[in-house]
Amino acid sequence: LSRLSPQRRAKAAAYTNPRSRALSVGATLALDHLLREVGLRERDMTYVTGPHGKPAFSALPRHLFNLSHSGALAAAAMLTGCPQDVAIGLDIQRVTRYRPELVRRQFTDADRARLAAVAGKEQRQSLFTQLWSRSEAYAKATGKGIESPFPEPSPNATFFDFTIGTAYCGSLCVLT
Length: 176
Known about the structure:
Elements: H1 6-14, H2 18-37, E1 47-49, E2 55-57, E3 64-70, E4 73-79, E5 87-94, H3 100-106, H4 109-116, H5 121-142, E6 157-164, E7 168-175
Antiparallel strand pairs: 1-2, 3-4, 5-7, 6-7
């Protein structure tokens, strides 16, 4: 914990579940690794939050970051030297069961059609989780949080989807 800034220490301490606390620390240590690549340290950072709670570096507005954790994995993403109108959001998810009630309530028509076209159970679960991760990443990039139903992403959203084995998937959303 001594390698973390006071704000991230407090964030980790707020978790009552020890696993969630450890994942929060892990995501922060991943961010520290990225910051070290550009000669900075996370423990020296101070943060501000947007109107919906999205954190940002107070003294480095052109250095964008986002953190995520799920299951046993933690992740961090950072972009440096960004124009003021760029935003990022990162989400990682453990592949979970397909939940048709959430699809009906939350997903866009296009995503519902993509899911309906998938025949295999495992493929549908993977696609369901990937689409959920995209929606979370988009929500984090916009700074608005999850909306119900998920909005159609704006045309200026670019997604970088990834998988980690068969158990995890994620998405990085970059808004320009």
